[in-house]
Amino acid sequence: MDVDTFWQDFKSRHPEIKTNHHDTYAMGSTDENATILAHLIAAGTKTATTSALDLYTADEPLPFVGEYNVILDGHDQPICVTQTKVVETIPFNQVSAEHAYHEGEDDRTLASWRREHRAFFQAAYRQEGRIFTEDIPCYCEVFVRVD
């Protein structure tokens, strides 16, 4: 199903939602990872995510509280809809164990969160010709699966 049809079907089941605004994206750095993460979200295991704030571009809006998101798998197929509930900027080295747990990945510990996100961010920064440091600003988002 294409995203527009998926979104319209979602709205028809939720007439209380008046907005047509939604973001659409897949998470992760590979198609396989995107599919795994999408299914963790659909199952309610993954209810948070983190991005590097200073890697957003000027034409890329930040997620905001109340925003709806169509989550895609690694084949660009819509899997579910989430709504952003909390956003906050926190230095990488101060992200909490609670946030790491809500990310729902690996063993859900802060140690594994830091290991995986450090590797991901180091690669992303290197690709941009920048250097990752432990105090980069992270944009932490908490969401709920709506449908």
From TrEMBL:
Superkingdom, natural source: Bacteria
ASCH domain boundaries: 25-147
Membrane-spanning ranges: none
SMART domains given in the database record: ASCH
UniProt-listed Pfam families: ASCH
SUPFAM superfamilies to which the protein is assigned, alphabetical: PUA domain-like
PANTHER family xrefs: CYTOPLASMIC PROTEIN (PTHR39203:SF1), CYTOPLASMIC PROTEIN-RELATED (PTHR39203)
Name this protein carries in UniProt: ASCH domain-containing protein
Species this protein is from: Levilactobacillus hammesii DSM 16381
